[in-house]
Predict the 3D structure of the following.
Amino acid sequence: MATLTVTVTAPRRAWLTDLPVLLVAVVWGASYLAAKGIITDTTVLAVLVLRFAVVLPALAVAGWTALRGLSVAQWRGAGLLGLILSGIFLLETYGVVHTSATNAGLIISLTMIFTPLAEAAVTRTRPSRTFLAAAALSVAGVVLLTQSGGITAPSAGDLLMLLAALARTVHVLAMARIRSVRGAEALPLTTVQLGAAVVVFALLCAAPGAGATPWEAAAAFGPGQWAGLVFLSVFCTLFAFFVQMWAVHRTSPSRVSLLLGTEPLWAAAAGIAIGGERLGPLGLLGAVFVLAGTAWGRRATA
């Protein structure tokens, strides 16, 4: 009887943990379409300031004690990571303005391929043939994805998303190699990074010809734009962060990573089902290649 109880309840407990993490992947996938609905070329910086300024107070209050416990070196390391993070968000946000939500979500998933390749280059180790084959499949998928409308040069948005994937790789490597932040707790580290990024966005906003100010953008928002901003701030940032912190203590990091790795699938689903985007035969084949290649590569490095 006891054995039966364990066998039945363990999967239920696992799913109670998996479900919120999977929901994070869903909202992250939907974030590209949400961003397209509220951002234009002239409001990128303003929306970035608003998005993160909304959640920073909550993060600061939740992690106030840990923030006060950070050393000067940890503040400096987290601030440097925040500068890299600001570059990632700038590339992603400008990129999604100039490409489809589907393309954005699929191209950014190449981070899962770029990161092991970069680690191999830094450590001077040769990736396995299986991983190299997965990487080649993913790259071929991106090429097909960006040519879904015919043989043309990739759009500016596609190239920006590709740069964003590379920037994400730099961020991951920097987190692993900056000694001062290795022992820091996730909450204060994230708070300092987002704070540094907001400072960068605010300074860029103040530059001449930078576009709308946060106040002008906020004043022009209708109910739909405010709903999109709340979704990006509360669900894609605050909710996602706390779910990850909660989940890593209740399941394995590998399981969390596997579930979050479904983000590009949800990005494509949102873009096609809700955004009415169309890929065409080449684009659909490319999407399949990207999803298969990144999943294969993730298993090869597990």
About this structure: Residues 2-38 form the longest helix (37 residues). The chain has a mean pLDDT of 85. The chain has one domain: 17-300.
